[in-house]
Amino acid sequence: MSAVKIGLIGIGTIGMFLLETFNKNQLLPGYRVESVYDSREKSVETLQQLSTTYALSSFTKLESFLESDVDIIIECAGIEVVAQY
Questions:
Q1: Which of 19, 6, 8 has the alpha carbon at shortest distance from 71?
Q2: Within 10 Å of residue 21's Cβ, how many Cβ atoms?
């Protein structure tokens, strides 16, 4: 069975928890975060660091994120962002 590729929308507290759960701690073998999206200006540096640390793709543009090679997307953003998208 191939790995399930996960995309995360938002890299705040919940997003970081899920990223560490799947990629660092590997609590669900066969599941891996491959892409992360966060459009906040304050997240750009964090996204770059996460890309290097976890060997994943990071996005600040929603369209590009949605075109990334993922099997499932998990929304981890705040209510304001959810309403926007």
A1: 6
A2: 14
Q: Are the C-beta atoms of 36 and 53 separated by less than 8 Å? A: no
Supply 9's token pair: 């929308």
Q: What contacts 21, CB < 8 A, 6 or more positions away?
A: 27, 28
pTM of the model: 0.88
Cα 32 to chain centroid distance, Å, stands at: 10
Rounded to the nearest 10°, the torsion over CA 40, 14, 63, 31 is 150
Q: pLDDT digits over 38-80, tens only?
A: 988 888 999 999 999 999 999 999 999 999 999 999 999 877 7
Q: DSSP assignment, residue 42?
A: G
Q: Is the dihedral of CA 66, 15, 30, 24 positive or negative?
A: positive
